[in-house]
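Standup notes
- HV: blocked on the assembly model, inputs below
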Amino acid sequence: MNPDVVIGTGEAVVFWVLGPIALAGALGMVLSRNAVHSALWLVNTMLALGVFYVVQEAPFLGAVQIIVYTGAIMILFLFVLMLVGRDSSDSVVETLRGQRVAAIVLGLGFAGLVGAGIARATQGIPVAGLAAVQGAETSNIEAIAEVLFTRYLLAFEVTSALLITAAVGAMVLAHIEREPGTRPTQKELSRARFLTDRPQTLPGPGVFARGNSVAAPALLPDGRLAEDSFATGIEPQEVEQMPRPTGRAELGTPDAALGTLDPAPSDVPGGRDR
Amino acid sequence: MILAAAADQPTLADFGTDVWWIVLIKVVGVFALLVLLTLFAIVFERKVVARMQQRIGPNRVGPRGYLQSLADGLKLAFKEDIMPALADKPVYFLAPVLATVPAFLAFSVIPLGPVVSIFGQQTPLQLTDAPIGVLVVLACSAMGIYGIVLGGWASGSTYPLLGSLRSAAQMISYEIAMGLSIVAVFLYAGSMSTSEIVAAQADGNPVSFFGLEFTGPGWFAVLLPVSFVIYVIAVVGETNRAPFDLPEAESELVGGFHTEYSSLKFALFFLAEYINMVTVSALAATLFLGGWRAPWPISVWDGANSGWWPLLWFFLKVVAALFVFIWLRGTLPRLRYDQFMRFGWKVLVPTALVWILAVATMRTVAREADLSTGQVALFVGVPIALLVIAVLLVASRASNRATRLAAREAAAGSNHPTEPEVLPPPGPRRGPGGPSRAEGGFPIPPMDLAVPPSPRLRRRDAVAPEGAVVGTGRRSTTTIEEDVDD
């Protein structure tokens, strides 16, 4: 290893603190039964990775990792998972016999293979350090921009074309073509309504009434039923009204009814005896 | 871009060299500042909205009611903490924390002032800065979405879930527009660090207009007006404020994502919302309104941009931006969800993209033709802006033509529906006989619904026995006694 490149204390501390956290996130993602919990563990790992990038003097990469992967892509994942419902945890019943053991063995084998391969491939590679690669003067952001827009320009553009194609494809699949003019716009409806006798909305069921059932029609100020508010397809039902006391002089004090079986002050809708 | 920035203008090299107790002071200072600004913003909002609605507003607690939000906050802390039975407990607990922590973090890169002396130490009035300063704010706002989304999901209830779904879609959409609006600022400032963006707005743009020499403003709000407008609109959506407060639309979703929350957890959501407001206002001041630098008439005074004075200018700008938030809330009705998304994706994002293209092109042209920024703005920007405004005026007039004609006819006494078949025929639709068709393609309930008789409904045939019908709470006691007696 190049003796010029020294890992600082702070970097080591960050690594040993965040490394286990990232690993725990990865394990939690695999092991948790609830899909949303899995996604959250993955968010945890991605955040830790983002901090790793920043610590290794690639702040732009770290910020993009957090903004794009954690902030946008995982939110979209969550968006879909949330629609699945909160109680749909994984079933523990194995449908394929022995698949769990096979998956664990194969996964460990694959991890060992990749790890060993990378370890062998990177063994003995001289470490140059970031400053030597991008030049001590330029910042990391400028170095990334330069490489991205010169050497990897074609790859960059092709990737964006691929993404655009995917987005357009998804839109085409999800799009419903509707003949223009088949459905009146809000503007047309509104204008037409204002040219009729009744521009305002119809009273909803239950306005000024005691029940909140859709069958309880609204009442007009004089106590009649408002026909405009009859609900679609339901027989309107009249609701028992609150007594409407008009004053103590007519009704007597309600305290007089306390402790008696007398249903004072008034049982009759509308307050007084008709 | 950075020409003759003053000596106390901090550069990136000034950060990361503070003594530990200076850092501590700054951290505590930013925290206290945000909490105080939240308390202030709530009272300020209630007072301003009250004024706009011809009311008095809070006037009981403290001098002229200014301690109202403090009292409310204390009350919230002492309220009962309710955990819904269906809640996903760890996530339900985590969500308010996830909403609040990034909100506090984002403010750490906001420059509050120049290099000042704190107990003999020269230090910039800013917690920290990085080459990616503004991206830190974007990352924090991206993380803040999780708090809202998870809060709604973990409540185990319908309205919160709807609110969180709305907020997920809304905040991602408007974050794209917000990010795109900032790109033009990066292009002009040549940096993503907040302190350098402030420095880039320090000097005006000298322009010579047919021999008339003057210095144009250096604010990016003037140089990049389209970016500024898009930013302002996008952050209103990003912070879930009216008229874009769909995730917590009271009239549709009760309280939206925080319906099930109470006590301190609710207070944390509330805190996060107002801190986000303060942060985006501060970012608007930093990116577009010259940061802590004094506005023009004051900047004539030499000492305006040194020492602790810039703190005052900065907070004046922040409060002005907060006022705009409140003004919008007091003025505009809430958008419908589809209108809102259409506006974000079909208007804001394409406009931002075209604007970036135009800005980048003009930057290249200016470099090739050796023009200064001020000249470009004056000789290219202003004519194009006038042209665009004229086209928009004509287009809007053309699209409103039918309405104008109808209004003129109506004013002249005509009262015939212009399109009689647009509205469904009046009459049987609402009648008790039942309608005959699905109208406008909207779902209609099954038509053979029979409502079971409710004890509270009047029985048409049988007369209710005396006292059996419960009318008021008081007489219900009587009824129960009666039942016992029977």
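- HV (later): unblocked. Chain A has nine helices and no strands. The radius of gyration of chain A is 35 Å.
- Next: hand off to the docking folks.
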